[in-house]
Amino acid sequence: MVTALQSEPNNEDAKSTSSTLVNGEHSSTRNEMDAVAERTTTTTAGAATPTAATTTTAATATTATATDETNNNNNRNTNLNLPQIRHGFDQEMYEEDIIRFLYFSEKRHDSNAQPNATVRNALKDWRLRERIKTVSGLLVVCLNIGTDPPDVVKTNPCAKLECWIDPFLLIPQKSLEAIGKNLHNQYETINGRTRFKLSLDPSVEETKKVCCQMRRNAKEERILFHYNGHGVPKPTTSGEIWVFNRNYTQYIPVSLFDLQSWLGSPVIYVWDCSAAGNIINAFNRFAEQRDTEALRMAQQHQNTSTQASWKDSIQLAACGPTETLPMNPDLPADVFTACLTTPIEMSLRWVVMRNPLLTSNITMDMVLQLPGRATERRTPLGELNWIFTAVTDTIAWCVLQDEPELFKRLFRQDLTVASMFRNYLLAERIMRSYQCTPMSTPKLPETHDHPMWQAWDLAVDMCLFQLPALKASESGGPAHEYQSSTFFSEQLTAFEVWLSEGAVNPKIPEQLPIVLQVLLSQVHRLRALILLSRFLDLGPWAVNAALSVGIFPYVLKLLQSPAAELKPVLVFIWARILAVDRSCQNDLLKDHGYAYFINILTPNNAMLSIPHVSEHRAMSAFILSVFCTNFKMGQQACLRGNVIAACLAHVKDPDPLLRQWICLCLAQVWMNNSEAKSAAIAENGHEKLCALLSDSVPEVRASAMYALGTFLADPNKTEQIVNIEHNIAISALTVMSDGSPMVRREFVIALSHIVDQAGPGKFLAAASQTIEEDQSQRSVFGEDRGKAMRSRQSEWRAAIDGHFGSSSYDSVYAVIWKALLNLSVDPHPDVSKAAAVVVDHINALLLSTPMIGEYATNLARESAHQQASQETLGMDRSQSFQNYDDNNRSSTHSTSPVSRRPAKLTRSVSFASTLRTIYNFGNTSSNLNAPPTNANDLQENNRPVSSSAAVAAASAANSKQNSTSIGNKSQSAVDDSTLPLISTFYDWSCEYFTEPQMRATEADEPGSVVYTQRKWRRSRNEKILQESNSTKGMAGTSRWDEQINSMYNDTEATLLLLHQFEPHLVAADAYNCLVVWDWKTGTPLSVIDNHNPAHSRISDMKFINEEDEALLLTGSDDGVVRLYKNYDGSDQEQAVLVSSWRALKDMEKSSSRQSGLVSDWHQARGLLFTGGDARYIKVWDVHQEMPVLDIPTQSLGCVTSLTSDQVNGNILIAGFGDGSISVYDRRLAPEDALVKKWEEHKAWVTGVHLQREGNRELISGGFEGDVKIWDIRESHSLRTIQAHTQNEMTALAVHDHSQVIASAGDDQIIKVWNMDGHRLSTIRPTSGFLGQKTSSTRTLAFHPNLMVMAASGDDGYINLYGTH
């Protein structure tokens, strides 16, 4: 996907930053070069136009560039004392200095624009499905002050404080009430909304009554049960706790089993007594019994009402089953309760107790009088409270990372439970230092020695350090300003360090919950948000982590903040969250959060001060699009907020990401929403989107097509909307010649909506019209049969009108139908499969219509007969499309792979042919007569030609006899579920926001595998270039007849291609197979089927991105270009089709010899020049995947060979079938681009080649055997070599670096020449035992760098020769 940083859209050098730089280090040179290239392209094109026709123009146009450019003579050039470089190119920079982009390596090529299932399934469930409240609490205190229980022997002195009160200062009853009141207050500070009830020294009856009453009042909510048993015996192992009798003469046991019955569930229990572990163990035993009993009852009565499980009760106990509470006189007697309810006080006291040095100027009483309030974060007490919350939350988060559900339940679901458990962590730390191990259900991992406690100790120390000065200033001493703690800024720094250093492995940093706490503070908020956005940028796992910590309510609340500096960060964070979790629509709707993003998207807003404003608007458009997806209320909210107008205002924005997302946002706003469509029509939205179908970025074109597709998908139509839809469909036809399969697929999906809604009648009429056109073209055979056909046609016409109501043959539907037929033979399987579904839907409808089915059956039979008769007469038009060398292989035809292939369902542009193959499929007997339908009849969209008029309905006839035939399938195929097709483009586009944007991609990170491989390849490439430099000087004087290797290719190779750096040799045969060889070892690496339609052949091959992982490009004589990655089968994987498109349309078929499609590739500019059996040369910018120029050839012959200057790609030279050679300058206007024409060859130009390096010689060879050397500034050739006088020259090759030419004639001899016309070698390729068979050479190829030449013969052998 194209990132936001791009210069103006039409500049070809404005390559997206997401394209990978191969030479990562020299990006500065690239920018200088861009500036120069841009300057020259504009100036020279303007300057050279007036005198375009004169001969001198080519020279001036070329040298203009030369003088304007920097002189970059490479070190490779300086060590050669060669003659002057031709064409005035000596000033030009060398191609190797240009930093290379890797074309076709974008995300859309890797994933075929299909969404990744793992991304969509990445979401973890972070929401709290139910928030449980603790509505009431029962505080049971059994102290019986003054009487110690019999089983506890107390020390002297002993811990005596209960709730920070000395029980022996007052009379026992007063003390008990004061303690109860304090306990009540301490619990209320934890949660002021909970209603607490005291039960002081209760009897059994009282306990039961209070418990039952409490459950009645609480209904389904949670109850807190606090039990202080310091004045009664320890709990028993069998599960009893103790209370009193009415007059306090006896201790009475209460069974936990009964207590469970009285309190029900859910409950949180706090057990503060010795041997509290006994309670937990017994309680869990009873809970299990109850649960199994409940399960048994439910099974008996098939009862589905689910009672909350008893095992889910939450318990906190002060110590283990055999432990006694600490009796240290410096501690309170209820240490556990003090930790749970007054953690700050307890913590401070403990610090003072452990550090005797502190007590010199700090007393216990001072500690308890820490200034401030717990709720005010700017005061010392408030700040400590805040830090304590952050520390304990972090510890809990760290130890429960593997149990997110438990963390959610204990620390997020219920405020009271969360506070109690955070404080419990402190209790565990303090009590373990006194040999008590607190217990809990559910059990938590150990936390008492977690490193975060050290951060807490430091914060407490810093606070206590200031305490004497604060106290002094309170009592009138010198004023002291409280210094806030540096805890939060230090933790943010730690988080920042983690992000910059440790973010490679997805281990979640422990500072994440602290970032959450920091969002509460205005001082650190912006910094925390920026760090959070950097964290979320790491990918979906990071978003999940942040959501499960509980970040969502905070960022939702911040949408209400007017602060301008938060806007960019918040937009980024929301885009990340919504990319992973789309379920936040209601949250955005609730408090009008969505308005925040509409404001940013709306133009002329205060957003302009923000850098990269377009990128943030694109994110806002993405957020709003998710807000509208399948959410009617979201669509209405966006409509009210004028999102449509806001989006359309950015249609011409320079940032492609924004252009893409406003299209997708519009699509989601008006999907299935008539009101939104009307609003868009009022704003002329559909026309503005149609204009984007010719955008320079494929993703933008695809998203515009997607948006128009959703615009068409609306069943409630007025006449006006139908007309608008027709206009959209017609103007979208341009997309058929788009180079990107992603865009074409969206077009098919858009058309499927029209087919779905127009109803069958319109398209059956269109289909019948196509068949009639077929018939009229084919009434060659006999007048009487023609008459019979015509009378039957009128019957059919009547049948159609009767069945569907009369319909004028609507030309729009006919055009759409032909477009669909065209797309069903698209070279890319994704597109053709989608279009085939739509076409088959209509075929099936046709076959299931009475009368019509019958007519079509007869038609099918006739067509099959006629096919047979035509074949005997040799009249089938498709047969005449064979290329010239079919004759050579007619003798071996019976064993050729073509004849061995099984019959398969072939598609064709013509409806008729498609139907015929269906008929033949049903009727295997007639299969012998039916040749494969040809897909290379592809003419203009509106004139499908076909070799027969078809028949689909045959299958309907078959279905009467044969229930398994296609006819029956077609009956079921008419169900409506197939149409319209569903697009996945939106989901795929959303994945952009799950990928890292802030850091370099993995491939660009030094040390990564890809980076290291790339670096290795680069050094290897340099070595090969050095090797070629050392040998290329001698190549023009050495002999070339040393055979290096010989490989048997099974079939005769018609084309050879050698890779510049890898030892790869690709051989293409006449049967569309490519074999990739390792030419050093002579082993085949892989075989690729090019999937050409019948009777078409591969006519050209090129490598793309040769300096890195190369792609193999093939061109076929039906005008189709295909690109393969992994072509050499490395990693034991098949070659993968990266992209394919029809690079040349209007390929003219004739019975004379044809060149097919020939091409030339310019790596530095990313240009593909294509020509062949067409009247123009098309220039494709593969970065845009669009044609940028059509140059008329101004010649009658076909283009047989193309070559371009590898400097700037401005000069293009073409050889023609009539012997002429033309030079074009692509900077001029297309009609003036022809700047030179030579007509010295008298026959077919076998090849024309302009060297990439060395002297940049331009060489051409003619069929008559003459080789000529040219300078484009001269009107005549510089030199002619008569290579083959008596024989025709069948192959020509030129070495790119040295002064060597090779030619082969049909006299079975290969000759190697230097540029001066001296013959260096004569080679007679032989094969067979002792080499007694000579073979004639089909094609020659030089290695681009090394001194190696490959030649393939008609006997299937490929020979390699080197110099010696």
Q: How would you describe what is shown here?
A:
This protein is of the alpha+beta class and 1364 residues long. Helix content is 41%, strand content 16%. The N terminus is likely disordered. The chain is elongated and about 135 Å long. It has 45 helices and 38 strands. The longest helix has 27 residues. It has a 6-stranded mixed beta sheet, sandwiched between helices. The protein has a 4-stranded antiparallel beta sheet with strand order 9-38-37-36, with no helix packed on it. Helix 10 packs across helix 11, helix 22 crosses helix 25 and helix 24 packs across helix 25.
Alpha-beta classification:
alpha+beta
What is Rg? 42 Å
Number of helices: 45
**Overall average residue pLDDT:** 81
Shape: elongated
Summarize the structure.
With 1364 residues, the protein is of the alpha+beta class.
Quickly list its features.
1364 residues, alpha+beta, six-stranded mixed sheet, 38 strands, 16% strand, disordered N terminus
How are the secondary structure elements laid out?
Elements: H1 27-47, H2 56-68, H3 75-78, H4 107-111, H5 117-120, E1 134-141, H6 172-190, E2 195-200, H7 204-218, E3 222-228, E4 240-244, E5 251-255, H8 256-263, E6 267-272, H9 276-301, E7 314-317, H10 335-341, H11 343-354, H12 364-368, H13 380-399, H14 404-411, H15 415-432, E8 439-441, H16 452-474, H17 487-502, H18 512-518, H19 525-536, H20 540-549, H21 552-558, H22 567-580, H23 585-590, H24 594-601, H25 613-628, H26 632-640, H27 643-648, H28 656-670, H29 674-682, H30 685-691, H31 698-712, H32 719-731, H33 741-758, H34 760-777, H35 783-804, H36 811-823, H37 829-847, H38 852-873, H39 886-889, H40 897-900, H41 911-922, H42 954-961, H43 966-973, H44 985-990, H45 1009-1035, E9 1042-1048, E10 1053-1058, E11 1064-1069, E12 1073-1078, E13 1083-1089, E14 1098-1104, E15 1111-1116, E16 1120-1125, E17 1136-1142, E18 1157-1162, E19 1167-1172, E20 1176-1181, E21 1186-1192, E22 1199-1204, E23 1211-1216, E24 1221-1225, E25 1234-1238, E26 1245-1250, E27 1258-1262, E28 1266-1270, E29 1279-1282, E30 1289-1294, E31 1300-1305, E32 1310-1314, E33 1319-1323, E34 1326-1327, E35 1333-1334, ...
Parallel strand pairs: 1-2, 1-3, 3-6, 6-7
Antiparallel strand pairs: 4-5, 7-8, 9-38, 10-11, 11-12, 12-13, 14-15, 15-16, 16-17, 18-19, 19-20, 20-21, 22-23, 23-24, 24-25, 26-27, 27-28, 28-29, 30-31, 31-32, 32-33, 34-35, 36-37, 37-38
Helix pairs in contact: 1-2, 10-11, 10-15, 13-15, 13-16, 13-18, 17-18, 17-19, 18-19, 19-22, 20-22, 22-25, 24-25, 25-28, 28-31, 31-33, 33-37, 34-35, 34-36, 34-37, 36-37, 37-43, 38-41, 38-42
